[in-house]
């Protein structure tokens, strides 16, 4: 077997020769070969020695490991592509360093005893060399290191520049042995193919990124190198462009592959675009690379020599060709037989020319192309939306930063055509149109023209809230509207279409004259509730300030604007806080030469009416220096005086003011007192005969006042029946439902004991009107949107009808009640679920009707009784009533003739009301049911009727709950009478809760309730039946 030392010597010799043949990093691999030769020399020395101990074996093994790694690295660098190794040059150098250091550490472990010749001197040489190997750094070529650094991810921003990309590709090509990339691109592509194979084998993310980056740069370079462009705006060629002068190679920058605009020559003699070569030099500087010529690789200085002759030649060539392109575009766009593609090419080429310089815009304008594009836009339907969009985009570039072109556009119909495009369905067309308008609106004269075009501002404002519109179009619309704000008429139109902020800003920040103009606009434009709220928050203080100024024009404009804002109820608080009440009252009450016009007084009154009918807290606000408020006596008297002395328009507004004052629960008492002291009741009633605009408000005012001065109003209505007749006419279904509800409320609040008024109502045919109207309302007959008034109207109509049950002693009224079947009618109303007031008034009416039942019953002749005394002793039975007689009233009863609750089947519906949450309804139901056990009827039979209807337990529950003393007293009254029936008393005695309720009433009720409870307890045998505990009252 061959000794291990010899194996190592052979392998090192082989690797030393292989290292010299590596084509990349040749200098570094030659150094590796030199170090391998040293290892070989030491191995030979060890082989000549006689030591065969394990120390030698360990030493040989430590040398084998780096030698094998060196073999792997040499094989790797021999098989991989040159670009791949270039990208990994720093990693290769690091591996060389690790291998060399490992061999150095092994050599430093060679003992002196192993050395045959030289002894210690040789050992010293080996140690010195080993130390050098342990600290050796393999150099990486500066250009290669910088190139790798440039390609790293964090430098991708630099790599986006074409000039830098070209320079890097040339550097890579030279590094891998391709001296002129432009002459041999196929060799570079072959290297890229090899790189691709290496990267696919490694599957390293960073390698894949590098491969894609270099590959993309190479493809871009190939495209630009194959077809240099006239500019960076267009690379499209059209057959018509064959008439253009040819492009000369000397005009093309090697880096950008575009016609140079500022050519400069560097030290290598090559000519480049100034910006491109500067960018290349900057990239070299940032990456620590020497400044070299991108084509030759020659190191150069940064001195740039302008090539004026070449520049002038290029400029002349460019001017001739660009004018020719304008002419060609005009022919393509204007020709009737041009295809869609020809038209689009011409428009796009004009856009490219516009982007190059302003002079081209002048040439296009001078060639009359703007009217040509206008005609194409008019006929855009023939070529479709793409032509329209491209035409709009071309016009936008033409007018951008060019006032002369804007003026020409303003003389055409293009603004109207652009606005027409805004109304189309296609988002891209709307975006192109609004982009053009955004540019045109930078001209004040055109702003006026845009604003004067029908629908322009409406469409622009609408785009801001159009969710289907893209963000860029919305931004253009916003810019256009912002530009249009310089025009007062446009600002007014914006406000009319929901964009009110510009108007508000001008009103707050503008000059006095501008404020007046904006206030006038604010008063006239229709505003949404949201806009009114926004305006009130922003400009109320300014308007009040104008209202208090010495300028009549400012006062009038501010007053009208405030009136408009006051129509929103929630704005009342803003106006009050701003101090509007004082100047308003001043304008209203001021007389003499300085007083405001009647028209402005009307506006003041209207504003004040809106404020007092709003939710604002006006009640405590002083309106003058004396501290008077709106409900002070002198102020109310002044209102009443103005109502009498002004025309209908102001009278109507002042009546609305009184309505607002009377609508306040805290202030209505003062208003009523001041009306009484002014003796104005009759005057207010007379407004019922006024025209509708006054009558409606007067009815509402009288309704509000009727809760506090019903008798005075009844007296006033009796003076003449005309007003009473008017109120009844208002109840008909062809009148406004709100007015009907107010009229019904007024009549319902009049005193029911006023028989004269009741007869006056009868004379006016009130019963017929009321019955029919109640039936109409129950059927839902009413105007659209009247829902919130229907319930109060029905309850008030029932309340008016119930007043006739208070006058049943009158034979005429009694007959009418029979004829109109009052009892069945009110019984049906008791069951009006959800209409509490209707149920209450129906129960009240049934009580009044039932109290007359005994008197109206007919009593036939009955067999002679054998004596009450014998019946009491129980010797004989009480004779039963003949069939057909009412057990409660003892006679012949009916629902219509005698108003009997039992015959009308009203008892059960009334009992169902005893569990109602509204205590007034419970009280009314108890009142009606109590008529079945009053002194004039058969108490025992009435109690049985209540028992059969299930009334006993609800009555006891009322006692247990004792929510009010009135209810407890009424319930106790009924229980005491029911307990007189021995059988019922026995049933109730078993129920401990019932006894507890009665005992509680006995202990805690008022005097009347306690007396009734005492009697009830006696019926239950709970207390002695001797002397009463309480004195009778």
Helix content: 55-70%
- Spatial sequence of strands, sheet with the most strands: 2-1-3
Would you identify the regions where 5 or more consecutive residues have pLDDT less than 50? Answer: 227-235, 868-874, 1029-1033
Shape: elongated
Q: Tally the helices.
A: 55
Major pleated sheet: 3 strands, antiparallel
Q: In whole angstroms, how far apart are the ends?
A: 146 Å
> Which strand-content bin applies to the residues?
under 5%
Count of DSSP E strands? 3
Average pLDDT for all residues = 85
Task: Provide the gyration radius in Å.
Answer: 55 Å
Structural class by helix and strand composition: mainly alpha
Task: Report on the architecture of this protein.
The protein is built from 55 helices and three strands. With 1033 residues, it is an all-alpha fold. The protein has a three-stranded antiparallel β-sheet with strand order 2-1-3. α9 runs antiparallel to α10 (205-226) and α17 (385-399) runs parallel beside α20 (427-440). Residues 227-235, 868-874 and 1029-1033 have low confidence and may be disordered. It comes from Sphagnum jensenii. Pathway: Protein modification; protein ubiquitination. This is RING-type E3 ubiquitin transferase. It is an enzyme of class 2 (transferase).
